[in-house]
Amino acid sequence: MEEIVPIEIGNLIMLQYFYLSYNHLKGSIPSSIFNISSLLHIGLGSNNFFGYVWSNMFDYLPRLSYLDLGECQLSGRIPMSLFKCKELEVLYLYENRLEGTVPSEITNLTSLVHFSIGRNNISGQFPNPTPLLHWYDVSENNLVGEIPSSICNLSSIMGLYLLMNSFNGTFPECLGNLSSSLLYIELQKNNFHGKLPKNFAKGCTLQSIRINNNQLEGSVPRSLGNCKDLNLLDIGNNYLSDTFPNWLGYLDQLQVLILRSNRFYGQVNNSDVKVSFSRLRCIDLSHNNFSGYLPVNFFENLHAIREGHEKKSKPEYMIFTVLNGKQYCVVEDLSFTAKGLEMEFQSLLTSWMVLDFSSNQFLGEIPKILGEIHSLIVLNLSHNSLTGPIPSSLSDLSELESLDLSSNKLRGRIPIELTNIEFLEVLNLSQNNLKGPIPQGKQFDTFTNNSYIGNLGLCGLPL
């Protein structure tokens, strides 16, 4: 049941800590709260409030050190009175309807450690960071301009979230130097250009790097090999030109690797890497210029996907972090081509296993060993130059939900064993040289002729 905050709360003139987050509260926030000059912490986030912030909202809160008004549906501009709160350490204003710019007076908050104004309608230039920041989140706004050199002074920065703005320019080289404190870099969906920093430090603590959907060029820096805790690397949808970075196989914590829609080329071969991609769960190499045979030794080393089919007692999500008692899923808004569609995931289960090598120049036969990658949910090898038969061993992919082998040069019959894949929801074998009768029964009775068109030798339903 939704309740309102009573105006009488302002009578508690000795109140220091006020937490009502996550309570389905509605109505406007009583102004009387902000007259309690003894308040140190205000936590009203994640409720169903409405209304505007007002200019003198924080005039009487000189000792305030914690403010959470995130997800409160508040409108208006960031009040200038906020910058009188010189002791403020935590500021959460994310997911509201705030507009206007971030005043330059933000630099008055020299004690600020957590700064989050993501998912608003804030405009203007890159807000100046204060020197003690650990977490800096201005994501999903309308901000423009370049990353200022002052970012290099953030010696304790752990999370840098600039995604989905209109930032441009190049990455400061100092980003690599900051990697001894940084855990998460989220710079995706901007207009950055130039090259990646070359100097990721020894002892790099980075766990997630997402710089996809920019205009970056050059190669993948070998110094990323210093980031031994890296779980996720998404550099897709850029203009990077390099051979397959097989040395990433030494990063034995890596679970998600997305290189799609770049200019990578050559063979995918990691025979010189002894411990190779053993924890990798999602790999997307699609829309590049990779060539040669599909890499058997690479598939042999995918132990997480080969052995991960043992059922868990409850669903587990890939990466979480906890800030000031709040839990966040770091793997957000990842997209994969699955089941014939571009699918975006707000969170990613550890059971979600993807292998996408589509839209390259791979040739030769589909290796039988792919049938041993038992936990695959999505297998996409479409739009290559693969030849030979479809291996019946693919029927061992008992968790498979989407299989796309379309637009290759595959020949022979469709193995009847594929009807044993219980969860197969999408099948695309179109535009090949397959022949013979289409298997019937189980999931195959749900597929339409779109799954098979362009194979002149096929016969039977649904053609």
TrEMBL record:
Q: Which Gene3D superfamilies match?
A: Ribonuclease Inhibitor
**Principal cellular location given in the protein's record:** membrane
Q: Which of UniProt's keywords are assigned here?
A: Cell membrane, Glycoprotein, Leucine-rich repeat, Membrane, Receptor, Repeat, Signal, Transmembrane, Transmembrane helix
Q: Give the subcellular location.
A: Cell membrane
Q: Give the membrane topology.
A: Single-pass type I membrane protein
Q: Does the keyword Secreted apply?
A: no
Q: Which GO terms describe its cellular component?
A: plasma membrane
Q: What does the record list as coiled-coil region(s)?
A: none
Judging by the UniProt lineage, the source's domain of life is Eukaryota
Q: Known SUPFAM superfamilies for this protein? A: L domain-like (SSF52058)
Any one Pfam family here would be LRR_8
State the similarity comment: Belongs to the RLP family.
Q: What is this protein called?
A: Leucine-rich repeat-containing N-terminal plant-type domain-containing protein
The organism's taxonomic lineage, starting at the top = Eukaryota, Viridiplantae, Streptophyta, Embryophyta, Tracheophyta
